[in-house]
Write a structure and sequence with these properties.
168 residues; alpha+beta; 8 strands; 31% strand
Length: 168
């Protein structure tokens, strides 16, 4: 995937350079931008997939990865979110923060707040799983709520419910 990403970015740069000479590889002016954006997306996806894979390799013996996302976030305050990884195994659900995003959308990977939203909940401790327009909300036995922003909230909810049923 990384190779395809780099190739597409390279084609985008080549197409842009050739367009100055009046040569268009594809015949339309926006193709350099399109190639570069798709290539960048592939690189981003491959990078985050590798990070999730590294985290899942660190699961203790006997734990099996069920579902993971490299693009999850937890609300830290009114205007801040901590982005990171959400991992569901056959024994627990874990969030590990990697960066803080503020109101301006600026990502800070060196903030002291990183990790402040981390959680590790054994499946047996989860009391309820709810979805709303924005959040997947988990509630543990201590009535602590964990609000996670993740793509496919309903699929996550179903996977968590199924994992809890199989764990019991």
């Amino acid at each position: 995937m990384k190779i395809a990403g780099y190739l597409l970015i390279g084609i985008g740069v080549l197409d842009f350079a050739l367009s100055w000479m009046g040569v268009y590889i594809t015949g339309f002016e926006e193709s350099p931008l399109l190639f570069s954006v798709i290539g960048g997306f592939l690189l981003y996806y491959a990078k985050n997939k590798d990070k999730v894979s590294d985290l899942s390799d660190q699961l203790p013996e006997g734990e099996v990865l069920i579902k993971s996302s490299a693009n999850a976030a937890v609300q830290v305050g009114l205007i801040k979110q901590e982005s990171g990884f959400l991992i569901l195994s056959n024994k627990r659900i874990t969030f590990t923060g990697t960066a803080i995003t503020g109101k301006s959308g600026k990502v800070d990977e060196d903030s002291d707040e990183i990790g402040s939203s981390n959680f590790d909940i054994p499946l047996g401790e989860i009391e309820s799983t709810e979805t709303s327009l924005k959040y997947l909300t988990l509630k543990d036995r201590n009535n602590t709520e964990f609000k996670v922003v993740v793509m496919g909230k309903k699929k996550w909810k179903n996977a968590i419910i199924q994992a809890i049923a199989e764990h019991s």
